[in-house]
């Protein structure tokens, strides 16, 4: 089996949530690692997908908000340093790769299915290594993972939406031995 790893320079893990029901707050995780293990990345036959995202690497462009998101009110990054994913099933149909597996956020694990779009492969001009691109967009209910902190607004609604929209742009290459 060959292991393909995400390139942190050419990959992004972004998200957005509604704030006060009227605007969106966007952010990203700066430290993450995605791996695909398979004999054939073109077909994803027998593939296993794993991901780790460092919760303390959250960045919304506001230090106070980031500190709140790392606190016990949300991720509790001190006790839950990683968001993890481990696939149970991977199927490719055309350019779509359906990945089902266990997501763990803040100590709570749920099975989820994500549709990845396979954008193809190319040869990097920087070293000649073959690279593969995948992307996905999905929405998760943060409350399913125990991230229930919120505040009611005088005008109705809540401060932070339940739904979190995520966008992942991932570039993979074969893992090099150290």
UniProtKB/TrEMBL annotation:
Residues annotated as domain Lipid/polyisoprenoid-binding YceI-like: 3-173
Signal peptide as annotated in the record: none
Matching Pfam families: YceI
Top-level division of the source organism's lineage: Bacteria
PANTHER family to which the protein is assigned, alphabetical: PROTEIN YCEI
Family statement: Belongs to the UPF0312 family.
Protein name per the record: Polyisoprenoid-binding protein YceI
Species name: Salinicoccus halodurans
């Amino acid at each position: 089996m060959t292991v393909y790893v995400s390139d942190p320079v050419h990959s992004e893990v972004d998200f957005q949530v509604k704030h006060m029901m009227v605007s969106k707050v966007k952010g990203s995780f700066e430290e993450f690692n995605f791996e695909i293990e398979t004999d054939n990345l073109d077909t994803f036959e027998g593939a296993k997908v794993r991901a780790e995202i460092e919760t303390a690497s959250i960045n919304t462009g506001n230090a106070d908000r980031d500190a709140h998101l790392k606190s016990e009110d949300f991720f509790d990054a001190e006790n839950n340093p990683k968001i993890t994913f481990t696939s149970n099933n991977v199927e490719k149909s055309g350019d779509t790769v359906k990945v089902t597996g266990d997501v763990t956020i803040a100590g709570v694990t749920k099975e989820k299915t994500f549709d990845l779009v396979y954008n193809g492969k190319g040869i990097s001009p920087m070293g000649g290594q073959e690279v593969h691109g995948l992307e996905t967009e999905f929405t998760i209910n943060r409350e399913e993972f125990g991230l229930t902190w919120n505040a009611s607004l005088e005008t109705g609604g809540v401060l932070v939406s339940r739904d979190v929209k995520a966008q992942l742009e991932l570039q993979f290459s074969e893992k090099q031995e150290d």
